Amino acid sequence: MKRIPEWRGEMYVSLKGEVAFPGRYIIRKGEPLSSAIRRAGGFSESAYLKGAVFTRESVRKLQQKNIDDAIDRFERKILSQSADSAMGALGADEALQIQSAKEQKIALVEKLRAAKATGRISIRLADVGSFEGSVYDIALEDGDELHVPSRSDQVQVMGAVFNQTAFVHEPEATVSSYVRRSGGITADADRKAIYILKVDGTAMSGSGWGLRWDSARGSWLSGGLMSERLDPGDTIVVPEKVDKIAWLKETKDLTQILYQIAVTAGVLMVMF
């Protein structure tokens, strides 16, 4: 049997979804993603390349460590606040309130720790000929996985709106119009913290006005986040105000942690 140089039978990647031959493929060291896609027969006609999900175990471990470290810091901060408050309690009623707040804090930390990173790397796929040799044509690692979905026709609105739901994607509809169709934001919504989880794994945030070049449309676009037009499969997230809970008013870390979990774990959390 002729041996293939640098071929390691123990190295595999998985290609799923809208490829001609989904399955698990042996790879050689340094083999690019385009090579595996070619071996899988390329993409089907139904493939939604913008929504492709590429995951890697080494990235998942790093993302999870970052989440865990952030939660650890948050836990130390809020529990130290509980200890300080308990020492200064003036009576039984105040002590009970402090104990109740501490139990809420512990429950919140446990909920945060349940989030698990996915290891997603945002890539921009194209037909194999155009994709090959591009900056996104990365060298594969053992355990990598590519899932190519079929085209989505929906945009989701989640969080502090009156009706969390999905809408049929309309090319000219903006973030603002989708939020209005959801009944608008609730009194607990943090209007300035609204963000978009893009179907390609990236995120957009910011409420200010600006001018930017849209390469897909070949034109300049003006306005803030609420004026953005979306892609099929995008999700609009309207976070709750953190400071609606008394013991969170002095802590700004939670907003960033919830955002980090949403982006790296694909999980949108309600605080309580």
Walk me through the structure.
- The structure is a single chain.
- With 272 residues, the protein is α+β, with helices and mostly antiparallel strands.
- The protein has a domain at 152-240: Roll (Outer membrane lipoprotein wza fold like), CATH 3.10.560.
- The chain is 31% helix and 21% strand.
- The chain starts with 6 loop residues before the first strand and ends in a 7-residue tail after the last helix.
- The model has no long low-confidence stretch (mean pLDDT 86).
Comma- or semicolon-separated keywords:
21% strand; flat; 5-stranded mixed β-sheet; Outer membrane lipoprotein wza fold like; 31% helix
Summed up, what is this model?
This protein is of the alpha+beta class and 272 residues long. It has a domain of 89 residues: Outer membrane lipoprotein wza fold like, CATH 3.10.560.
